[in-house]
Amino acid sequence: MRIIQDSLNEAISRAERALVATHVNPDGDAVGSAAALAHIALRRGADVRILLGEGLPTAFAWLSLPAPCVQSLRELGAWTPDLLLLADCGDISRTEPDLRIKLKARGLPDGDWQGITFVTIDHHLSNGGFGDLNWVEASRSSTGELVGLLAEHMGIPLTGDLAEAVYLALVSDTGNFSFANTSSDTLALAARLAAGGFDIATFTAKYENTWNIAKMRLWGRLMTEIRLHADGAVACSLIPKRYLDESGLTRADLDGFASWLRRLRGVRVGLLVREDSPSRCKISLRSVGDVNVNAIAALYGGGGHAAAAGAELALPPEAAAKKVLTDIAARL
Ligand SMILES: [Mn+2]
Fold first, then answer.
1. For a 10 Å CB count at each end of the chain, is N or C smaller?
2. Structural domain of residue 193, as residue ranges?
3. From ligand 1's centre to the CA of 182, what distance in Å?
4. What total number of domains does the chain contain?
5. Does 217 lie in the same domain as 133?
6. Could you give the CA distance from residue 23 to residue 32 in angstroms, rounded to a whole number?
7. How high is the pLDDT of residue 113?
8. How far is the centre of ligand 1, averaged over its atoms, from the C-alpha of 143 (Å)?
Protein backbone atom coordinates (compact mmCIF):
# COMPACT_ATOMS: atom_id res chain seq x y z
CA MET A 1 0.00 0.00 0.00
CA ARG A 2 2.83 2.37 0.93
CA ILE A 3 4.54 1.83 -2.44
CA ILE A 4 1.47 2.74 -4.48
CA GLN A 5 0.76 5.69 -2.18
CA ASP A 6 4.32 6.94 -2.75
CA SER A 7 3.87 6.60 -6.52
CA LEU A 8 0.56 8.47 -6.39
CA ASN A 9 2.06 11.19 -4.22
CA GLU A 10 4.87 11.58 -6.75
CA ALA A 11 2.50 11.65 -9.76
CA ILE A 12 0.18 14.20 -8.14
CA SER A 13 3.04 16.38 -6.87
CA ARG A 14 4.62 16.41 -10.33
CA ALA A 15 1.39 17.32 -12.15
CA GLU A 16 0.81 20.80 -13.54
CA ARG A 17 -2.69 20.22 -14.85
CA ALA A 18 -4.82 17.52 -13.28
CA LEU A 19 -8.17 16.37 -14.63
CA VAL A 20 -10.34 14.51 -12.12
CA ALA A 21 -13.10 12.23 -13.37
CA THR A 22 -15.36 9.45 -12.14
CA HIS A 23 -18.06 7.12 -13.42
CA VAL A 24 -21.24 8.19 -15.24
CA ASN A 25 -24.31 8.75 -13.02
CA PRO A 26 -22.02 9.52 -10.11
CA ASP A 27 -23.08 8.54 -6.59
CA GLY A 28 -21.83 10.06 -3.33
CA ASP A 29 -18.63 8.04 -3.33
CA ALA A 30 -17.87 9.08 -6.91
CA VAL A 31 -18.56 12.77 -6.35
CA GLY A 32 -16.93 12.81 -2.90
CA SER A 33 -13.80 11.01 -4.08
CA ALA A 34 -13.48 13.23 -7.13
CA ALA A 35 -13.86 16.39 -5.04
CA ALA A 36 -11.36 15.07 -2.48
CA LEU A 37 -8.81 14.26 -5.20
CA ALA A 38 -9.29 17.75 -6.63
CA HIS A 39 -8.52 19.21 -3.17
CA ILE A 40 -5.39 17.07 -2.92
CA ALA A 41 -4.08 17.98 -6.40
CA LEU A 42 -4.76 21.68 -5.70
CA ARG A 43 -2.79 21.46 -2.45
CA ARG A 44 0.12 20.14 -4.48
CA GLY A 45 -0.04 23.17 -6.77
CA ALA A 46 -1.74 21.67 -9.82
CA ASP A 47 -4.29 23.50 -11.93
CA VAL A 48 -7.37 21.29 -11.58
CA ARG A 49 -10.54 20.59 -13.55
CA ILE A 50 -13.31 18.20 -12.63
CA LEU A 51 -15.25 16.33 -15.32
CA LEU A 52 -18.87 15.52 -14.45
CA GLY A 53 -20.88 14.76 -17.59
CA GLU A 54 -24.15 16.10 -16.24
CA GLY A 55 -22.60 18.54 -13.80
CA LEU A 56 -22.78 18.13 -10.05
CA PRO A 57 -25.92 16.04 -9.34
CA THR A 58 -28.59 18.10 -7.58
CA ALA A 59 -28.50 15.72 -4.58
CA PHE A 60 -24.98 17.01 -3.94
CA ALA A 61 -25.53 20.64 -4.95
CA TRP A 62 -24.44 21.70 -1.44
CA LEU A 63 -20.97 20.18 -1.90
CA SER A 64 -18.32 22.78 -2.60
CA LEU A 65 -16.07 21.78 -5.47
CA PRO A 66 -12.57 23.23 -5.17
CA ALA A 67 -12.02 23.56 -8.94
CA PRO A 68 -14.00 24.37 -12.09
CA CYS A 69 -16.37 21.60 -13.17
CA VAL A 70 -16.79 20.83 -16.88
CA GLN A 71 -19.45 18.65 -18.47
CA SER A 72 -17.39 17.70 -21.52
CA LEU A 73 -13.74 17.72 -22.58
CA ARG A 74 -14.65 20.24 -25.28
CA GLU A 75 -15.20 22.81 -22.54
CA LEU A 76 -11.53 22.52 -21.62
CA GLY A 77 -10.50 24.17 -24.90
CA ALA A 78 -6.72 24.28 -25.19
CA TRP A 79 -6.29 23.12 -21.58
CA THR A 80 -4.76 19.64 -21.73
CA PRO A 81 -4.11 17.60 -18.58
CA ASP A 82 -0.80 15.96 -17.80
CA LEU A 83 -2.49 13.88 -15.11
CA LEU A 84 -5.84 12.12 -15.17
CA LEU A 85 -7.22 10.97 -11.82
CA LEU A 86 -10.12 8.58 -12.31
CA ALA A 87 -11.99 7.77 -9.10
CA ASP A 88 -14.45 4.98 -8.27
CA CYS A 89 -14.68 3.74 -11.84
CA GLY A 90 -14.21 0.00 -12.35
CA ASP A 91 -14.29 -0.12 -16.11
CA ILE A 92 -13.50 2.11 -19.08
CA SER A 93 -17.08 1.65 -20.34
CA ARG A 94 -18.31 3.48 -17.21
CA THR A 95 -16.39 6.68 -18.00
CA GLU A 96 -17.96 9.75 -19.63
CA PRO A 97 -18.36 9.09 -23.40
CA ASP A 98 -15.84 11.69 -24.62
CA LEU A 99 -13.31 10.62 -22.00
CA ARG A 100 -13.79 7.01 -23.08
CA ILE A 101 -12.90 7.95 -26.66
CA LYS A 102 -9.74 9.75 -25.49
CA LEU A 103 -8.66 6.83 -23.32
CA LYS A 104 -9.20 4.32 -26.09
CA ALA A 105 -7.24 6.49 -28.57
CA ARG A 106 -4.40 6.85 -26.09
CA GLY A 107 -3.01 3.45 -27.07
CA LEU A 108 -2.82 4.41 -30.76
CA PRO A 109 0.44 5.75 -32.22
CA ASP A 110 -1.10 9.09 -33.28
CA GLY A 111 -3.54 9.39 -30.36
CA ASP A 112 -3.29 12.53 -28.26
CA TRP A 113 -2.95 12.38 -24.47
CA GLN A 114 0.09 10.12 -25.04
CA GLY A 115 2.14 11.92 -22.44
CA ILE A 116 -0.39 12.02 -19.63
CA THR A 117 -0.23 9.88 -16.54
CA PHE A 118 -3.48 8.01 -16.05
CA VAL A 119 -4.29 7.03 -12.47
CA THR A 120 -7.22 4.94 -11.26
CA ILE A 121 -8.22 4.79 -7.60
CA ASP A 122 -11.02 2.39 -6.95
CA HIS A 123 -12.60 -0.36 -4.87
CA HIS A 124 -14.67 -2.21 -7.47
CA LEU A 125 -14.20 -5.97 -7.52
CA SER A 126 -14.47 -5.90 -11.30
CA ASN A 127 -11.61 -3.39 -11.75
CA GLY A 128 -8.67 -5.11 -13.43
CA GLY A 129 -6.54 -1.93 -13.36
CA PHE A 130 -6.66 -0.10 -16.67
CA GLY A 131 -4.53 2.97 -15.90
CA ASP A 132 -0.77 3.57 -15.78
CA LEU A 133 -0.97 3.61 -11.99
CA ASN A 134 -3.78 1.75 -10.28
CA TRP A 135 -4.71 1.68 -6.62
CA VAL A 136 -7.55 -0.82 -6.44
CA GLU A 137 -8.54 -2.42 -3.16
CA ALA A 138 -11.84 -4.28 -3.38
CA SER A 139 -11.90 -4.79 0.39
CA ARG A 140 -12.26 -1.05 0.99
CA SER A 141 -15.67 0.42 1.82
CA SER A 142 -15.38 3.18 -0.72
CA THR A 143 -13.00 4.96 -3.02
CA GLY A 144 -13.25 7.86 -0.58
CA GLU A 145 -11.62 5.68 2.07
CA LEU A 146 -8.59 5.23 -0.21
CA VAL A 147 -8.50 8.94 -1.06
CA GLY A 148 -8.67 9.84 2.64
CA LEU A 149 -5.74 7.54 3.37
CA LEU A 150 -3.83 9.04 0.44
CA ALA A 151 -4.33 12.58 1.77
CA GLU A 152 -3.02 11.48 5.17
CA HIS A 153 -0.07 9.74 3.55
CA MET A 154 0.71 12.97 1.68
CA GLY A 155 0.53 14.96 4.92
CA ILE A 156 -2.59 16.89 3.86
CA PRO A 157 -4.89 17.48 6.86
CA LEU A 158 -8.38 16.02 6.58
CA THR A 159 -10.26 19.18 7.52
CA GLY A 160 -12.80 21.57 6.01
CA ASP A 161 -14.16 20.83 2.55
CA LEU A 162 -11.72 17.94 2.04
CA ALA A 163 -13.07 16.24 5.18
CA GLU A 164 -16.63 16.78 3.96
CA ALA A 165 -15.87 15.23 0.56
CA VAL A 166 -14.26 12.16 2.15
CA TYR A 167 -17.11 11.78 4.65
CA LEU A 168 -19.72 11.98 1.88
CA ALA A 169 -17.94 9.13 0.08
CA LEU A 170 -17.79 7.01 3.24
CA VAL A 171 -21.43 7.36 4.31
CA SER A 172 -22.71 7.03 0.77
CA ASP A 173 -21.10 3.66 0.04
CA THR A 174 -21.50 2.19 3.53
CA GLY A 175 -25.16 3.14 4.07
CA ASN A 176 -24.15 5.31 7.01
CA PHE A 177 -21.60 2.76 8.24
CA SER A 178 -24.07 -0.11 8.24
CA PHE A 179 -23.14 -2.35 5.29
CA ALA A 180 -20.76 -5.31 5.44
CA ASN A 181 -18.06 -3.22 3.73
CA THR A 182 -17.76 -1.01 6.85
CA SER A 183 -14.46 -1.99 8.47
CA SER A 184 -12.56 -0.82 11.52
CA ASP A 185 -10.37 1.13 9.06
CA THR A 186 -13.48 2.91 7.72
CA LEU A 187 -14.66 3.83 11.20
CA ALA A 188 -11.17 4.88 12.28
CA LEU A 189 -10.93 7.21 9.29
CA ALA A 190 -14.36 8.67 10.12
CA ALA A 191 -13.20 9.11 13.72
CA ARG A 192 -10.15 11.03 12.53
CA LEU A 193 -12.42 13.29 10.45
CA ALA A 194 -14.52 13.98 13.55
CA ALA A 195 -11.38 14.56 15.61
CA GLY A 196 -10.28 17.11 13.00
CA GLY A 197 -13.44 19.13 13.62
CA PHE A 198 -15.79 17.73 11.01
CA ASP A 199 -19.41 18.33 12.09
CA ILE A 200 -21.48 15.20 11.42
CA ALA A 201 -24.91 16.65 12.29
CA THR A 202 -24.50 19.65 9.98
CA PHE A 203 -23.47 17.30 7.22
CA THR A 204 -26.44 14.97 7.79
CA ALA A 205 -28.90 17.86 7.57
CA LYS A 206 -27.50 18.76 4.14
CA TYR A 207 -27.15 15.20 2.90
CA GLU A 208 -30.22 13.38 4.21
CA ASN A 209 -32.98 15.85 4.94
CA THR A 210 -33.48 16.98 1.38
CA TRP A 211 -36.41 14.98 0.02
CA ASN A 212 -39.43 16.59 -1.61
CA ILE A 213 -42.94 15.19 -1.24
CA ALA A 214 -42.94 13.74 -4.78
CA LYS A 215 -39.93 11.60 -3.93
CA MET A 216 -41.43 10.46 -0.62
CA ARG A 217 -44.66 9.45 -2.40
CA LEU A 218 -42.80 7.65 -5.20
CA TRP A 219 -40.78 5.61 -2.69
CA GLY A 220 -44.04 4.77 -0.91
CA ARG A 221 -45.56 3.59 -4.17
CA LEU A 222 -42.49 1.49 -4.99
CA MET A 223 -42.61 -0.11 -1.56
CA THR A 224 -46.26 -1.10 -1.94
CA GLU A 225 -45.44 -2.72 -5.28
CA ILE A 226 -42.44 -4.83 -4.19
CA ARG A 227 -42.80 -8.45 -5.29
CA LEU A 228 -41.38 -11.39 -3.41
CA HIS A 229 -39.95 -14.51 -5.04
CA ALA A 230 -38.22 -17.72 -3.94
CA ASP A 231 -40.25 -18.00 -0.72
CA GLY A 232 -39.38 -14.45 0.24
CA ALA A 233 -35.63 -14.78 -0.31
CA VAL A 234 -35.75 -12.39 -3.27
CA ALA A 235 -37.40 -8.98 -3.36
CA CYS A 236 -37.96 -7.35 -6.72
CA SER A 237 -38.96 -3.81 -7.60
CA LEU A 238 -39.88 -2.73 -11.11
CA ILE A 239 -39.83 0.96 -11.89
CA PRO A 240 -41.58 2.04 -15.10
CA LYS A 241 -40.12 5.16 -16.70
CA ARG A 242 -43.48 6.90 -16.46
CA TYR A 243 -43.26 6.88 -12.64
CA LEU A 244 -40.36 9.32 -12.90
CA ASP A 245 -41.87 11.30 -15.76
CA GLU A 246 -45.21 11.70 -13.96
CA SER A 247 -43.65 12.85 -10.71
CA GLY A 248 -41.07 15.18 -12.23
CA LEU A 249 -38.27 13.19 -10.58
CA THR A 250 -35.00 11.91 -11.99
CA ARG A 251 -33.10 8.64 -11.77
CA ALA A 252 -31.01 10.15 -9.00
CA ASP A 253 -34.15 10.21 -6.84
CA LEU A 254 -34.07 6.40 -6.90
CA ASP A 255 -30.55 6.21 -5.47
CA GLY A 256 -30.58 4.12 -2.34
CA PHE A 257 -33.91 2.41 -2.99
CA ALA A 258 -32.31 -0.90 -4.01
CA SER A 259 -30.64 -1.17 -0.60
CA TRP A 260 -34.06 -0.87 1.10
CA LEU A 261 -35.11 -4.19 -0.42
CA ARG A 262 -32.68 -5.83 2.01
CA ARG A 263 -34.65 -4.49 4.95
CA LEU A 264 -37.27 -7.20 4.47
CA ARG A 265 -36.69 -10.05 6.87
CA GLY A 266 -35.61 -13.18 5.01
CA VAL A 267 -34.53 -11.37 1.86
CA ARG A 268 -31.12 -12.48 0.61
CA VAL A 269 -31.14 -10.68 -2.73
CA GLY A 270 -32.83 -7.45 -3.78
CA LEU A 271 -33.36 -6.73 -7.47
CA LEU A 272 -34.38 -3.34 -8.78
CA VAL A 273 -35.25 -3.03 -12.46
CA ARG A 274 -35.48 0.52 -13.74
CA GLU A 275 -36.97 1.07 -17.20
CA ASP A 276 -34.92 3.57 -19.19
CA SER A 277 -36.71 3.04 -22.52
CA PRO A 278 -39.17 0.40 -23.78
CA SER A 279 -36.24 -1.85 -24.72
CA ARG A 280 -33.57 -0.88 -22.18
CA CYS A 281 -33.33 -1.11 -18.46
CA LYS A 282 -30.86 -0.83 -15.62
CA ILE A 283 -30.70 -3.49 -12.95
CA SER A 284 -29.36 -2.96 -9.44
CA LEU A 285 -28.61 -5.97 -7.26
CA ARG A 286 -28.11 -6.03 -3.50
CA SER A 287 -27.38 -9.04 -1.36
CA VAL A 288 -27.18 -10.04 2.26
CA GLY A 289 -24.67 -12.65 3.31
CA ASP A 290 -23.05 -14.94 0.81
CA VAL A 291 -24.73 -14.36 -2.56
CA ASN A 292 -22.19 -12.70 -4.87
CA VAL A 293 -24.29 -10.37 -7.01
CA ASN A 294 -21.21 -9.07 -8.81
CA ALA A 295 -21.13 -12.43 -10.63
CA ILE A 296 -24.76 -12.01 -11.70
CA ALA A 297 -24.19 -8.45 -12.96
CA ALA A 298 -21.12 -9.70 -14.84
CA LEU A 299 -23.35 -12.02 -16.90
CA TYR A 300 -24.72 -8.84 -18.48
CA GLY A 301 -21.46 -6.94 -18.81
CA GLY A 302 -21.96 -5.08 -15.55
CA GLY A 303 -20.15 -5.27 -12.24
CA GLY A 304 -19.63 -3.74 -8.85
CA HIS A 305 -19.15 -5.42 -5.52
CA ALA A 306 -20.06 -8.78 -3.98
CA ALA A 307 -23.05 -7.26 -2.17
CA ALA A 308 -23.96 -4.43 -4.56
CA ALA A 309 -23.72 -4.50 -8.33
CA GLY A 310 -25.49 -3.32 -11.45
CA ALA A 311 -25.79 -3.75 -15.20
CA GLU A 312 -27.72 -2.53 -18.21
CA LEU A 313 -29.85 -4.88 -20.28
CA ALA A 314 -31.27 -4.39 -23.76
CA LEU A 315 -34.63 -5.82 -22.70
CA PRO A 316 -38.01 -4.51 -21.55
CA PRO A 317 -38.19 -4.45 -17.73
CA GLU A 318 -40.52 -7.45 -17.30
CA ALA A 319 -38.34 -9.67 -19.51
CA ALA A 320 -35.18 -8.44 -17.79
CA ALA A 321 -36.65 -9.18 -14.35
CA LYS A 322 -37.66 -12.69 -15.40
CA LYS A 323 -34.21 -13.46 -16.76
CA VAL A 324 -32.27 -12.08 -13.80
CA LEU A 325 -34.62 -13.74 -11.27
CA THR A 326 -33.68 -17.07 -12.87
CA ASP A 327 -29.98 -16.22 -12.49
CA ILE A 328 -30.54 -15.32 -8.85
CA ALA A 329 -32.53 -18.50 -8.14
CA ALA A 330 -29.62 -20.56 -9.49
CA ARG A 331 -27.32 -19.03 -6.88
CA LEU A 332 -29.45 -19.15 -3.75
MN1 LIG B 1 -17.78 3.42 -4.66
1. N
2. 2-207
3. 12
4. 2
5. no
6. 12
7. 84
8. 5
